Amino acid sequence: ELKVEQNPLFLSMQEGKNYTIYCNYSTTSDRLYWYRQDPGKSLESLFVLLSNGAVKQEGRLMASLDTKARLSTLHITAAVHDLSATYFCAVTNYGGATNKLIFGTGTLLAVQP
Amino acid sequence: ETGVTQTPRHLVMGMTNKKSLKCEQHLGHNAMYWYKQSAKKPLELMFVYNFKEQTENNSVPSRFSPECPNSSHLFLHLHTLQPEDSALYLCASSQDLGGGGGEQYFGPGTRLTVT
Fold first, then answer.
1. Hey, are the CB atoms on B104 and A106 less than 8 Å from each other?
2. DSSP secondary structure, chain A, as one string
3. Burial per residue of A62-71, b for 16 or more beta-carbon CB atoms within 10 angstroms, e otherwise
4. Residue A94 has what pLDDT?
5. CA separation for the pair A36, A90 (Å, rounded)
6. pLDDT of residue A24
7. Between chains, do B103 and A103 touch, taking CB under 8 Å as contact?
8. Which of A43, A44, A88 is most worth mutating to test chain B (most B CB atoms within 10 A of its CB)?
């Protein structure tokens, strides 16, 4: 059974600082997603990572994937308050007939002025 | 309307009520999903439909009854719910199933409270 773990679960950081959120998964998978969720809102897709060594960047966020280590990271550079949200990683079950996403528990990010 | 829409956005119902949640996608996708998001828990996949056919039922209690009349619409019929069913119910769609199906696009969710 594919399991996805994120850490930390909660992250309080100051504006201007850098930090990394980690996403580990238990079995082989062929793609990994990062989503953002604002309070009371839906999930917004941030990144789709499709291969080992994939790196994608959008603004202050950069995501990477190491399929051998079964690890993805979401790096935040020079955080700003607008980045405060809950971030989820999700992994597709490998070789499955259904596009089934297994989500991590989420990381609640609070960026303080 | 664009993307994935859900109605109602908020719903309060008693344990003996019957209600329905509606999801509509305007993306031309073929697959649709229901998820449950409870506090402090990961998103749980409930049902998957592809071309109107159910392909996944993730051991969901029968008090939740999905319906997919066409590829653009998905309903979740609710009856005799329990307080622990209170959660955010999210609908999503993707182009199709399988590893190449692409990412899922989520609706805004329905916040359900069972009293």
1. no
2. ---EEEE-SEEEEETT--EEEEEEESS-EEEEEEEEE-TTS-EEEEEEE-STT-EEEETTEEEEEETTTTEEEEEE-S--GGG-EEEEEEEEETT-SS--EEE---EEEEEE-
3. bbbbebeebe
4. 57
5. 11
6. 96
7. no
8. A43
Residue of B35, B47, B104 to mutate, interface with A, max A Cβ within 10 Å: B104
At residue A27, the pLDDT reads: 84
Look over chain A and give the mean of its residue pLDDT values, rounded to a whole number: 90
Percent of chain B with pLDDT over 90: 79
Q: Mind telling me how many Å the CA of B109 is from chain A's nearest CA?
A: 6
User: CA of B39: which chain A residue's CA is closest?
Assistant: A105
Cβ contact B9:B110 at 8 Å: yes
> Is A43 within 8 Å of B93 (Cβ atoms)?
no
Q: What 8-state DSSP symbol labels residue B107?
A: -
Q: For chain B, what is the largest distance between any 2 Cα atoms, rounded to a whole number of angstroms?
A: 42
What residues contact A63, with CB distance under 8 A and at least 6 apart?
Answer: A34, A46, A47, A49, A55, A56, A57, A72, A73, A74, A75
CB contact under 8 A, B42 and A33: no
In this structure, chain B runs to a length of: 115
